Amino acid sequence: MGKKHVFNAGPCLLPQVAIDNTIEALKDFKGTGVSLISISHRTKGWDEVMDECRALWKEILGIPEGYEVVFLGGGASLQFLYVAMNYLEHKAGYLETGVWAKKALKEAQGLGNAVALASSADKNYCYIPKGYEIPKDLDYFHITTNNTIYGTEIRTDLDSPVPLIADMSSDILSRRVDVSKYAMIYGGAQKNAGPAGVAFAIIKTDTLGKVSRYLPTMLDYRTHIDKLSMFNTPPVFAIFVMNETLKWLKSIGGIDAIHAIDVKKAETLYAEIDRNGLFTGTAAKEDRSIMNVCFVMSPGHEDLQDEFMKFATERDIVGIKGHRSVGGFRASLYNASTQEDVEALVAAMQEFEKIRG
Predict the structure, then answer these.
(1) Which of 151, 197, 285, 327 would you call most buried, defined as having the most Cβ atoms within 10 angstroms of its Cβ?
(2) Among 57, 100, 171, 265, which one carries the catalytic annotation?
(3) Would the pLDDT of 52 be above 70?
(4) Residue of 46, 171, 191, 265 marked active site
């Protein structure tokens, strides 16, 4: 069996060193003689992991004073509700750029007045809306920076006259972010930050405590800030792997280094899609994601989709099937994927073109 080239959209490929270090901790956590998945979160040494993980987030992203990082269960989908519970008082605005943005809006609408300021649903979310205005009377404006299903991405930090909240589940840690422009950044870890099972939230603390509604203890961000993400039993395994992933990212040069790597991977694959007559990209070129490259067979070649999928699979390419709602192909180029992986996919596309083009 050859080396697998993994392009899963999530849970996704993780750095091998993080996997190896986790395997050792599964055998024995920090010399305790107890497996990582059997320890109590009150075990001596666990606080060190939590402290290091928070510190690495702050160091790698350059998070300024006045912000705290918390780790929570429930994934980004539960954060859709957390956000509205903690920030929605009168009215909120959302940028609807895909399925997850739409779901976030729905959760907010269940609690109060939340509206889509702009949407790209008219063209199946293949572009990022532009030219909209953000009213100054909003409690907050919510964006989803990377849209995994459709392959679009907001790659700059927006200027907002109201608190800006971003779901960065699938492009966090892939580019430099001006955290000071955001009231909050959140996401599921299972793309660039670690395995499934934990969500992160980066919160400007002085933006909390401004709603009049009763906040259930578990849904109040202040609870988790005050208790250092251990108000209840944290997802120990997922946080450990996250910490190892952040250590790896720091070791290779941090955000600037990985951004250069990610851009090169994306440019390599997009160049082949644009050159190869059998394939067509689905996202507007100016809004293409460097994390999720979505493409289909070109018009007239649609009947070759299943054949190419089989062809790629036989060449040890894993996880390029498009989301069930859109079909086609999707190659997710998260941080742990390599240029070698991308070149293997490009080689398969070129070989297939010679046979069927």
Answers:
(1) 151
(2) 100
(3) yes
(4) 191
